[in-house]
User: Fold these one by one.
Assistant:
Number 1:
Amino acid sequence: MSLILPDPFPPPWACEWADDAEWGLSATLSFRGVRQRFRWIQPGTFLMGSPPDELRRYDNETLHEVTFSRGYWLANTACTQALWQAVMGENPSFFQDDPAQPVEQVSWNDVETFLKRLNVLVPGLDAWLPSEAQWEYACRAGTAMPFSFGENVTPEQVNYDGNYPYAGAEKGLCRKTTVAVGSLPPNPWGLYEMHGNVWEWCADWYGPYPVGPQSDPAGPTDGSLVLRGGLLGGRRVLRGGSWGSFAQYCRSACRYGIPPNGASHNTGFRLAPGQRPAGEASRHAAWQAQAERASQAGGSDADG
């Protein structure tokens, strides 16, 4: 299949771009001295979820075909504390040994606020969270096994609780903290720490997968569940597992959901430029005035 290039390319927010033989196109944002690289994810088709014989799978991982008709940009790492600090002026993270560690202790609502502010400060970025399907497609990177690294993982590949390995593997290192982004080997598409380190928020509400093949799925319209005791409020999707997770929760297909105001020292996210929902800017025009005041106080925003 021929490669489909982003339009426009290079994107207006990029200070530099590259096309390397192994991982393809990348573009880099520089904001107040903090850099974030993005990878161009080509459109394609994959099987989302897990097969019935995958060890430690859950019933919410129903296998189904998903096709992406369009490519998309995705950060090659989780958002760092340095970038969050540059945008928000504060750092909510529990682990603060290195500004290159992923920001954590952020809720879905916190991330929404961050993205609205960043989109005003960097015109044309239009960043949001990846959909759950986009996240898994990128995590798998053309693979169909429990992990993008194969049938199993080690703590040298993934930051998880090594006391609880997968599929009978040997116990290993338990770091009890996040590591700086880009510290561990990337998946076949050049994306780092898609497994482990921090759970990553997705744009979607959490809910059952639809039946049958899907094209460019956007997820359910809400995350409410009807239980015996009544209605449970909506939950947003988290993916990838974390530094404190058993290895089974770091599988490509594993899904989790918590309320959008929930946060802990293992919840983070990664940026997806060009994903901002239609009409979001007009609904939140107040951010423009706030961003202009912040810009006047802090000087230049986007570099390059």
Note: The CA atoms of residues 34 and 141 lie 27 Å apart.
Number 2:
Amino acid sequence: MQFQKILVPVGVVAVVVVAFREYSWAGVALALGLVVMWGLLHFSRMMQVMTRAANRPIGTVASAVMLNAKLRPGVTLLHVVAMTKSLGALQTPKDTQPELYRWTDASASFVTCTFAGGKLVEWQLLRPPQDDGEPPAAAPGAA
């Protein structure tokens, strides 16, 4: 989990060094251009996700059951926000670990997600009891 914080900068430096050894300064310019383009792609995706989320109420989702089916351990908070198109309602005090976010749908079902270090650790779907207002149907053969 913490390897990404180390491997990405080391990988960038390695690409620049190899580019310099193989193609001199032209290779460095090409490698740095690719690194900047990669960073811009990630930044624009993050901005697109956050723009979509800003246009919806906090903590809402179209279907909590479908969200529950799509979730996988280890996905990032940004990925979950992209799936729901909504920021989650924070359930824990700000800047405490682990973080709990909740998304609720129109039927009052909700998914509570636990994130540790920005990665999804666990989640739970809770559905309200179904009250149809009708008495239970009699079993066949009952008088």
Note: The chain has a mean pLDDT of 88.
Number 3:
Amino acid sequence: MITIMAAIADNNALGKDNQLIWYLPGDLKRFKRMTLNHAVIMGRKTFESLGKPLPNRINIIITRDKNYKAEGCVIVNSLKEALKAAKEEDENPFILGGAEIYKQAMPFADKLDLTFVHHKFDADVFFPEIDKTIWKERSREDFKADEKNKYDYSFVTFQRL
């Protein structure tokens, strides 16, 4: 089961200047709970925006740079290699982005675990359109903004038809 995990704004925004645009502790707690002890696949820029490997996960980084090194991480040069490396360690890897990795991974994913942030943001990277003829919404939890979470948001899971 290959799962794409992302937080997406109403205009499909993912981030700007290699950073997340919003801070939602509720989303971060869910992200940690769901990905803990799993393989996580991400592009080099996404990894560098984090600054270090995610603890208690197998961090797999995709880069075209054949000489790239990141301590505590598995380095590969394609999504195909990343999926192969992940499957050796974990039957349920998560794909964490960025935008180009999401686009490449959509045909291979079985599930989308998304956080929809109910606001439009100025961004320079966007999540691919979700084709509703391929993806069926299976669950949704809605949350109102509060003192910790500035925006309304929803956790939505899609399954491939």
Note: Helices lie at 25-35, 44-50, 79-89, 99-105.
Number 4:
Amino acid sequence: MRLKGKVALIVGAGGPMGTAVSTLFAQEGAKVVLAARREEPLRELTERIKQIGGEATFVTGDALTIEGSQRMVSCAIERYGRLDILYHNIGDYAFGDKSLSETGENEWRYLIDVNLNSAFLPCRFAIPVLKQSGGGVIVFVSASTALRQRAHAGYAAAKAGLIGMTLNLARNLKPFNIRVHCLCPSGIGQLKSTDRIGLPTPNLNRSGEPEDVAYAALFLCSDEAAWLTGVVLDIDGGASLSI
């Protein structure tokens, strides 16, 4: 098992990609802490993971609040005594049909909050714990180059901000053996010939699946990638190659 003995906090575990990475990490031996705002999908996912022999617990909270983010990290410590992996999977592709000049202030703030600021507080509270554990891995989920170029400007700015945050933290956390990476997917689960923002699908003769993202995350969080940090990885079936 590639993550045996590791404790992973999955922030934003309720959606398809969060479900895929949580399940795969548990199958590979990690004890997973599932975090999101809504309890019902977390409870269901926790039970499914336990049914396949995995170890999981869940905690509800809002990553945009101090209370919610502290609760997520504290849950991992109280339940399992340590934290090795922080996986941030929160985001929303919204207002994609609006130009910047049509965008309201609240819409802009929402895009920045949900796609970028939601990473700040979980990291703020997780980094000291990762240091105490002797190191670990942080993974953000951004968006592929192709997707960012075709999305709403606020979404693109926020997801590009995650990439900048990744590279900054990767450099600054090297002395503490904390590796930081950023996955940049697009075209995941797209079944039509063209997705809703004009990206041709499928690439590589098929559409992307949440498991494609999960397997990339598994490698980067495993000891097999112990000599890697600051990786920014497009997971888009080659869509970004046509830019």
Note: The chain has one domain: 7-242.
